[in-house]
Amino acid sequence: MIFPIPVFIITGFLGAGKTTLLNYILYHQTTHKIAIIENELGNTALDSIVLSQEKQSLHIRTLQNGCICCNSHAELEITLIQLINQLKTHQIQFSQLMIECTGMADPGSIIKTFLTHDHVSSYFQLKGVVTVVDAFNAPYQFKHFHVTQAQIGYADLILVSKIDLINKPYQDFFKQLAYMNNRANIHPIFNGRLDLTLLDQLDGFSLPSQSSFLCQELPDNPLDAQVNSFVIRRDEPFDLHTLSPLFERLLVNFKDQLLRYKAILYIKDTPERLLLQGIQQVYNSDFGSPWSESEVPFSELVFIGIALPEQEFRKAFTEL
C-alpha cells in the first residue's frame, strides 16, 4: 500500500449526474482499486454485499469490479480514521478514494478536513474537486440555490452535462463558468463518459511550481453570477513584511466570501518563489524552487469567491 492515497471530491447539484459519472469511472478504469464514500446511497446501480457487521459504524460494501463503497453516519474525519485503521490492518485495500457529496452540500467543509487534519493528510492526499454542472437547469439553479455557484467556485475540474438539451451554443455557457472559476478546466460530458486521463492529471491542491496559472482573460459576466474569479499579476517584488499583513487583513475582511485562492509570489531579496494556496481562511505557504537565470520573476495571484470586489483587491496589491 502506497501512502498518501489520492482523494477526489465529486460534487454537483441534485440530478446533475454525479452517480452516472461515478459508475462510469468505476467500470471503465483499470488502473486503480477505488473506494467511494457516499453521503446518499439511494437507488444506485452499484451492486454490492455488506461485509461488515451491523454493529459497526463503518459499512464496507464490495462492488462487482472489486472496488468498495463506504457508508458511515459519523463525521467525515471519523470515517477517514476508520478507513486508515482498516488499511493499516489489511482489512481492506484501495489505491484511490472518491467522496460523493450530496447535491445540496457545500464542499468547503470536506476540503478543510484534508487541509487541517495532520493524521488524515498523512494517509490521504486531496487531488481535486470535480463539479458536475447541469447545463439545462443551471440558470434556474444559479438564481435560486446559492450552493450551485459555490460548488463551481471550489472546482478544479468542471464537467458539464445535458448540453444537448440547451438551445444556444454551449460555448456561451462555458464562458459563464469561466467567469466564475477561471482556473478550473471545463469539459462537456455525455452520459457520464469521461476521459479518465483528466483525473490522472488533476492536482489542484498542490502548490504551483515553475509555471504561472495561465488563466485566460475573461469576458464580462453574461448572467450576473455571484461567484467571480480574477487574476492579479505583478512584476515588481513584494516586501514580505507588508504582504503578510495584507493577506491576513483580506482573509478577515472577506472570510465569508473567499472560496479558493492560489499564488506564486516574487519576494524581495529572496531567490526562491513563495507558493501559497488556501480555502476560505485556511491556507499554507512554502518557498519553492529558485528563480532561474533565464526566468523573469513575477507574482501571480488567483482569487475565487462570492462577489469579491476585484478593484479593491487590485488596488491593495498595487499599493504595496
TrEMBL record:
UniProt keyword Nucleotide-binding, yes or no: yes
Source organism superkingdom: Bacteria
Keyword line: Chaperone, Hydrolase, Nucleotide-binding
GO cellular component labels: cytoplasm
Record carries keyword Chaperone: yes
Reactions that this protein is recorded to catalyse: GTP + H2O = GDP + phosphate + H(+)
Gene Ontology molecular function: hydrolase activity; nucleotide binding
Domain CobW C-terminal: 227-320
Family listed: Belongs to the SIMIBI class G3E GTPase family. ZNG1 subfamily.
Role of this protein: Zinc chaperone that directly transfers zinc cofactor to target proteins, thereby activating them. Zinc is transferred from the CXCC motif in the GTPase domain to the zinc binding site in target proteins in a process requiring GTP hydrolysis.
Protein name (Swiss-Prot/TrEMBL): G3E family (YejR)
Species whose genome carries this gene: Commensalibacter communis
Biological classification of the source: Bacteria, Pseudomonadati, Pseudomonadota, Alphaproteobacteria, Acetobacterales
